[in-house]
Each structure stands twice: as C-alpha cells, then as structure tokens.
Amino acid sequence: MYDTAKDIVLNLVYMVETYGFVLNGARSYYTNRSQPPLLSSMVLDVYGATGDVEFVRKAFPSLLKEHSFWMSEVHNVPIRDKHGQVHNLSRYQARWNKPRPESATIDEELASKINSTADKEKLYHQIASTAESGWDFSSRWMRNSTDMTTLATTYIIPVDLNTFIFKMEQDIAAFAKLVGDNATSEKFLKASKARHIAIDSILWNSEMDQWLDYWLPADGNCQQGGYQWRSDSQNRKIFASNFIPLWLNAHHSGSMQFADAAKSKRVMASLQKSGLLCAAGIATSLTNTTQQWDFPNGWAPVQHLIAEGLLHSGSEEAMKLAEDIATRWVRTNYAAYKATGAMHEKYDVEACGKSGGGGEYKPQTGFGWSNGVVLSFLEEFGWPEHKEIGCSQGA
C-alpha cells in the first residue's frame, strides 16, 4: 500500500507547511501542540520501501521546517555539564493555557482544586504539554505521582523526545545527501553528533545503565549560558522511556551506532532487572497510579521501539530477548482479539489477553499502532507452526 502510505505522510507534510509542525491531531483546536516528531522516520520508511527520491525531495523542506520548530526557544533548553560544556536538548511545551477543547470538563474539574486564575492557566499549560508528549497521562510527568495538579512536563527534558530528534537529524542528513545538498547534510550530521553527546552527557546514568529524564529547577531560572547540570536532577524512577534510545541501534550507518555493543549489553541487563518485563510485555512504569501510561499498561509503540533496538544491539542474547518480548506481545494481542473480536490501544502486561485501562477516557479499540506492531513483529520473527499461540504456553 505504498500510495496510501505516501498520502498519509503527505497529509502530515501539508500540516508542517501550513502550521510549522505536525499537529497533535487533524483538528483546528490542535494548532497549539505537536505530535512527537517522527515524520522523518515515516519518510525514511516509505523511501526504504519504494526508493522514491522525488517523494523525499517533496517532503524534505518540511522536515527542515519541523526541525526548526523543535529547535526554537519554546522547546530548546541549554544545559551546562559538569565540565562547563553547554549542550542543547529539547522539551515538550504546548502554546496553550486553557482547558483542552476535547477534554474541557475533565480539565476544569481538575483545576477546580486550584484557587487563582494564573495557577489554573499554569496547570492547563502543563496538561496540554503532556498531551503533546503522547504519554498522557503518567507519573513520569508529575512532581507527586498521586496528584495530577503537580504535572510539570515543561520542566522535564525527556529521553524519548531527544531520541526522536537525534533520529530526525540523522534522517535529514541522509536525505540532504540524497537530494544533492551536501552542505545541509554536513550541518545535520554535526547537529546529530552534538545531540548524541548531549544525551549521553545530561541524560545517561552509568550507575543505573539507563538514560533518565532530566528535571529543570522548579523556579525555572536559567543562569546565563544555560542551566547547570546536577546529578540529583535526573529522575531515577524507572520508566520504559529510559530504554528508548536502544531503538537507535536499528537506525545507524556504519560507525555511527548510538550505543556500542558493550553499552547496549549493559542497558539490556538493566532492562532485564528493571521490573518492567512482565508476562505479556513491557510495562510503561513500575507505579500503578490508574493513569494509562503507568503500570500495568503496556503500549504497542514502546514494545516495538525497545524490541527493535535489542534486535540490532549486536548480541545473540539481545536478539533472543527481542523475540521473547515480541512473542509475549503477539500472544496477548491474539488472546484479546479472540476474546473480544477487536485489537486494543493498550494491554495489561500482567495478564495475557487482557486489554489495558485507566486514564480519562474509555479504552479504544481499533487500533492502528497495535495492528502495525503485531504485523511488524510477525514479519520480523515469523511464527513457526510448532509455536503455541495460547497464553499458558512458554516462549
């Protein structure tokens, strides 16, 4: 379905041309917040399947425009490391301080606990910014995991967002070379190298062997030349997002591997003892807050990003773990489908065949990314005839 895939991407390209970024949804009230930046990955996948250089040429200016959006003052944060080197990383930050039109009554009810109008607006800004992340909602973004009014997403440098932007910079460098713009290619190769260093300087934690979200000071004061890095500003709680940079192992050219085999092995060992690996897939967090991006929910894109990274980490053990995650995930999707006749947007990873819950709306069936990830896993690993599909079976 190459034409369909191209048209979906070109719809998003149109949004970037019209609004400067990919809207959180194709509705007028989403013009204040983005999606996580994965458009370049979509373009690359279509190009990889079709070899259509004209398609890349058509999308290329929009990718530059989207990158500028994420590099603007609204999203870019300079942080000075312990050696005095300044690094630039990005954060989510919607341009909105009112209730979300799609969830206005829910937002207003949450804000009713707050007295001042200014503080209500600050909460609405945090809610919309969290929605921009795709992880809406999770204890990951809260100062107090039991209190949604403590959302502080704009004070957080997220691991996954910067992983996606690094990938975007690498993609743009490759596309620029493809369309004959060598100067832009060099520029973005340099930018991706700088972001790689920034991610490892500011977000990597060598004690935990994970990349950790970084919290900016609560007063929001930025010293001249950037915030000063502090080790205690890394969020040491365990989330599946701490392992998302492994995904970059699946997308590197030659010597540009994001995490070498030795580091990938350490990250894999950290994942294995993290508590996130459950009977039916990878949990989003270890904390059950009843929010939908917390335990015990598992989400298709998270399984895919991490399994893809493991698969290309360079070790037999990592490949086996990737297949094991895929097997658990396919089984739970299959069992839930047999029981309900539908694919689900999220699954309870503690119980094979059980769809996920929690959050502010009724769980949805369908479901695009669940369908896509199952297809991808089956394409990648197959399903031999002797392999049992039932929940009670071992891998």
From TrEMBL:
Molecular functions per Gene Ontology: alpha,alpha-trehalase activity
Pfam families (UniProt xref): Trehalase (PF01204)
Signal peptide boundaries: none
Reactions mediated catalytically: alpha,alpha-trehalose + H2O = alpha-D-glucose + beta-D-glucose
Keywords: Glycosidase, Hydrolase
InterPro entries: 6-hairpin_glycosidase_sf, 6hp_glycosidase-like_sf, Glyco_hydro_37, Glyco_hydro_37_CS
Protein name, UniProt field: Trehalase
Organism: Urochloa decumbens
